[in-house]
Automatic annotation (TrEMBL):
Gene3D superfamilies: FAD/NAD(P)-binding domain. One of its GO terms (cellular component) is mitochondrial outer membrane. It comes from Glarea lozoyensis (strain ATCC 74030 / MF5533). This is Putative Kynurenine 3-monooxygenase. Keywords: FAD, Flavoprotein, Monooxygenase, Oxidoreductase. GO terms for biological process: kynurenine metabolic process. Its cofactor is FAD. PANTHER family: KYNURENINE 3-MONOOXYGENASE (PTHR46028:SF2). GO terms for molecular function: kynurenine 3-monooxygenase activity.
Amino acid sequence: MVPFYGQGMNAGLEDIRILFEILDKYPSRAEALAKYSEYRKEDAHVINDLALQNYVEMRASVVSPFYSARKWLEETV
């Protein structure tokens, strides 16, 4: 995950909470870890995609006049 979205720690804390919940449900560590990986996979992909989109926006879009106009419009309206 690129660090530019500022959600790494939030995602990590949520991972811990969910992992503990799943560990409580399954006596086998191997089964619990498999269930955890299956459960968190989609969320991990989504947060990674959002972080990457934010990185691309901050890297390239902020110098665009269109970006400046859009931000002005968002903040004004």
